[in-house]
Amino acid sequence: MEPAYKYIMMNDRIVIREMEIQCSIGVPEEERAEPQALRVTIEMDVDTAPSAKTDSIEQTVDYFLVYQRVHALSAARPRKLIETLAEEISQMVLGEFQVKTVSVQIDKFILPNTRAVSVEIQRRQN
């Protein structure tokens, strides 16, 4: 017998926190010459109730697949701006997964005496 869940969806979220990727990125050409480490956090607003009820990955976001797609996307070509990469990741997540909104934060370790420079964007389905 399946469990009976009575709920009102508020704000379910799947988070991939501080994923380390390698990417050729930077404004000066010499900075793009070699891949550098970036850290990416992705927050995806989803309705987790159907998958919780059925215990089925087909009814939720496969975060391992998101992880693989982000790695492939980031390695696909050089970019000048982390803003560009954040936008490309957000569009990929919204286009390929059942996600209502997505937040993407990218940390770049480029400035001395700072932990990171970050860009954070949020996008939603139309």
Structure description:
With 126 residues, the chain is α+β, with helices and mostly antiparallel strands. The chain has one domain (13-124): GTP cyclohydrolase I, C-terminal domain/NADPH-dependent 7-cyano-7-deazaguanine reductase, N-terminal domain (GTP Cyclohydrolase I, domain 2). It has four helices and four strands. It has a four-stranded antiparallel beta sheet with strand order 1-2-3-4, with helices on one face. Strand 3 and strand 4 form a beta hairpin. Helix 3 packs across helix 4. The longest helix is centred in the last third of the chain and has 15 residues, at 82-96. The model has no long low-confidence stretch (mean pLDDT 93).
- Helix and strand string, N-terminal first? EHEHHHEE
Largest sheet: 4 strands, antiparallel
CATH architecture: 2-Layer Sandwich
Distance between the termini: 37 Å
Low-confidence stretches: none
C-alpha-based Rg, rounded:
17 Å
Percentage of helical residues? 25-40%
- Determine the mean pLDDT: 93
- CATH fold assignment: GTP Cyclohydrolase I, domain 2
How many domains in all?
1
Layout: helices, strands, pairs:
Elements: E1 13-23, H1 29-32, E2 36-45, H2 49-54, H3 63-75, H4 82-96, E3 101-108, E4 117-124
Antiparallel strand pairs: 1-2, 2-3, 3-4
Helix pairs in contact: 3-4
Give me some keywords for this one:
126 residues, 29% strand, four-stranded antiparallel β-sheet, 4 strands, elongated, GTP Cyclohydrolase I, domain 2, alpha+beta
Q: TL;DR of this structure?
A:
By secondary structure, the protein is α+β, with helices and mostly antiparallel strands.
